[in-house]
Amino acid sequence: MREILIPGISRVLRGLERVHTALGRRLLTQTATFTSTDDHRVSDYWGKQFEAMRTDNSYWLNNKLVEESTYRLMTDTPKHWLGWLLTDYFAHRTFHRSLSVCCGDGAHEIQLYTSGKVRFVSGVDLSEGAITQAIGRFEAVGSPQDRYRFEVRDVNALTIDGTFDLILSTGALHHTTNLEALLATVERALEPNGYFIVVEFIGPNRFQWTDRQIEIANQVLSVLDPYY
């Protein structure tokens, strides 16, 4: 029995969708090829964005009050949601192989590895810079190379030639244009007793706000003291 776990804006673990499937074990293969200038722009943007957000005090989750408030909505505790998931919800379970869809700079994936709860950690992302940063995290802790794999891949045309008992998507699905195909691919790759963990932004698809929404947001910003 496969379980899809969504620790989102509403309370965690309220209603797990179960689906059945039986899949053989194979390895994830295939390298990415960029097909447009837009792909390069997205790759460059996120590579720089991840570097900036880790040290930028204005980034919303770098504020301790905001961070803990957000995690309370997800887990009823101020603990980081992934730490809570691994040590509390999955207290008596370990995983053989994980795959992160749009893994970014590997911040969550290094948590999976250092927790000791996941034997093999893998991730895909369109950003070459982010993938380089993710690999650097694992090299920095001396992880053996057979314990992780990160690849530059476009999830809008993703093929997964393998199965995993843990698949994550953290704040990524709303950036995906070919969402139905991606989720179908994830379903095929998820082992019968596996978990698909989704943490997702609720709002405009790919942040495509209307002109009116942008106008309102700018009006709100304009009345705030620049200090804030």
Write the layout of secondary structure elements.
Elements lengths: L1 E4 L11 E3 L17 H17 L10 H12 L5 H9 L5 E7 L5 H8 L3 E8 L2 H13 L7 E5 L11 E7 L8 H11 E10 L11 H12 L6
Parallel strand pairs: 1-7, 3-4, 3-6, 4-5, 6-7
Antiparallel strand pairs: 1-2
Helix pairs in contact: 1-5
Features:
globular; 7-stranded mixed beta sheet; 228 residues; Rossmann fold
What does this structure look like?
It is built from seven helices and seven strands; from the N terminus they run ββαααβαβαββαβα. With 228 residues, the protein is α/β, with parallel strands linked by helices. Strands 2-1-7-6-3-4-5 form a seven-stranded mixed beta sheet. The chain has helices at 37-53, 64-75, 81-89, 107-114, 128-140, 179-189, 211-222; strands at residues 2-5, 17-19, 95-101, 118-125, 148-152, 164-170, 190-199. α1 (37-53) runs parallel beside α5. It has one domain (2-222): Rossmann fold, CATH 3.40.50.
Q: In short, what is this structure?
A:
The protein has 228 residues and is an alpha/beta fold. Helix content is 36%, strand content 19%.
**Spatial order of the strands in the main sheet?**
2-1-7-6-3-4-5
Number of strands: 7
Superfamily (CATH H level) name: Vaccinia Virus protein VP39
Count of individual helical segments: 7
Overall morphology = globular
Our estimate of the beta-strand percent is 15-25%
* Secondary-structure element pattern, one letter each: EEHHHEHEHEEHEH
What is the residue-averaged pLDDT? 81
- How far is the N terminus from the C terminus? 48 Å
Global Rg: 18 Å
What would CATH call the class? Alpha Beta
CATH architect. name: 3-Layer(aba) Sandwich
Major beta sheet, specifics?
Answer: 7 strands, mixed
Provide the low-confidence segments as ranges.
Answer: 6-34
CATH fold-type name: Rossmann fold
Question: Based on helices, strands and strand pairing, what is the structural class?
Answer: alpha/beta
Helix coverage percent of residues? 25-40%
- How many distinct domains? 1
